[in-house]
Amino acid sequence: MSSHHTGALPANPETATLEGKNKVLGFWLFLGAEVVLFGCLFATYIALRNSVPDGPTAQELFKLKTVGWSTFILLTSSLTSVFAIIAMHRQKLGQLLGWLAVTVLFGLSFLGMEIYEFYEYVHEGHKFTTSAFSTSFYTLVGFHGAHVAFGVCWITLLIFQGMKKGLTVVTAPKFYVASLYWHFIDLVWVFIFTVVYLMGKVGH
């Protein structure tokens, strides 16, 4: 098995070129905007989470065991994306793409569990328009789920690009930025798990 050395690359290929540096910087600015956006959704959810005139409450609905597994899966995927970047710095293309593929599989598992969770909630009378609580819940958690789905598609495309073009100063920033994005959505999930699920289960 070859680990595909792709010629000598600089120590930090993701920022070796001006274009790479700009990509990484631009991405941090984009994340800043995303933080504001998620912040607004969190604030809305916190303001509305006790508005349940009709339909089940958070305490009745949430099953921490299921959500605990989802959290474990997503946090593990953050670790596999770290391994991918370590492999990139060691210039081992095969390992980099392998770890990214594992990250994608974990992301898909997380999405599968979230879809199942929403399906269960709807059957228990917790629909999008049931109450202000349900609307703010689905908006926040669903918006995060959409980010995970986007990340899965993005990393999958990068895997194919890596297979085709190898590891270069042009492709390295793309892998690096995708990994940053993945860490960001994992971090947001930690907040969702705490604010939505743990606080919802323990009560007011």
Automatic annotation (TrEMBL):
Compartment list: Cell membrane
Organism per entry: Paenibacillus oryzisoli
Cellular-component GO terms for this entry: plasma membrane
Alphabetized Gene3D superfamilies for the sequence: Cytochrome c oxidase, subunit III, four-helix bundle
Alphabetized PROSITE patterns for the sequence: COX3
Signal peptide location: none
CDD domains: Ubiquinol_oxidase_III
Origin superkingdom: Bacteria
GO MF entries: cytochrome-c oxidase activity
Domain Heme-copper oxidase subunit III family profile, residue spans: 25-201
Residue spans crossing the bilayer: 27-48, 68-89, 96-116, 136-160, 180-200
Family stated for the protein in its record: Belongs to the cytochrome c oxidase subunit 3 family.
Name of this chain's protein: Cytochrome B oxidoreductase
Keyword Transmembrane helix appears in the UniProt entry: yes
Membrane topology, from the record: Multi-pass membrane protein
Any Pfam family hit: COX3
Keywords, in A-Z order: Cell membrane, Membrane, Transmembrane, Transmembrane helix
Gene Ontology process terms (BP): aerobic electron transport chain
